[in-house]
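Lecture 7 notes: from sequence to structure.
We start with the chain below.
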Amino acid sequence: MTSFIRPKNLNDLARDLGLGTYAPRGNGTDLDSPKTFSLRKAGNDYIFSNLAGFSGDVTLLADRLDGGNSKTYDQWRDYVIKNKDNIIIPSSVLLYQLARCLYNLRDNSQHQNIVQECAQMLREDWDRKIPHTGTKITYGSGIEAVINHLQPDKSSSSISLDIPELTRFDNDWSYFVLAPEQAELQPSTNYEMPKQVSPVLHALFGEGYEQAGEIFQYFASRKNGAFREVRFWVPTESNRNTERAVVLGVSVWFGISAIDGIGNHGSARGVVVSVGR
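Predicted structure tokens for the same chain:
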């Protein structure tokens, strides 16, 4: 599948008008930064308010679940469902909204220190641990698939949609580049998403999914001082009829991986979503 770069004239126009990537940040005027985002700390944990799609406060726990032990995807789901506390493993939607909040508050003078602390915690997770999320995908024959998210009340929600094969890496895996490797000091460049990819990323991340490339570049460790390439991975059509866990993390690239083995062992970080304020 061919990747398309936004036409240069549109990029120049955005720069001239101060829109999108070129909009001022940190003063409440960024069009991509809702004024209602807020973040505070309670002990070692981080409390997020007004995340898109979640009505209550969300507490991101500083300690990994079960003392940092490693489990499979199904074992982690069973662990949090049986746990009497209101702790869950964040779905890819919830995890992305946490990251999106941090990203949009990164230059806000009232939040910078706490944002840097929390962002570093997630960065270390994604660089070293690649923890499980509460999201998995069941691939059927052809391009039919079902995305399943663990919800704050420990129930599950499912979304049926088509997930196309992308640019072939080999016979088993395919990918799409959301953002190229690029110098950190230059404005982020994102590739235009093919129309078949947009609904998939929307289902995986929710509101603001269009920012995924630049947001994950911010959270990834740098590669020789540059932003890492961000890739979205799915199986090829010849490697379907399977169930896969969704994880985020760094290898050579920052990977949005919809291809992780459901039986792979990994750690997990917990969150608590309040029912209201």
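Points to note: The two ends are 46 Å apart (CA to CA). The first strand starts at residue 4 and ends at 5.
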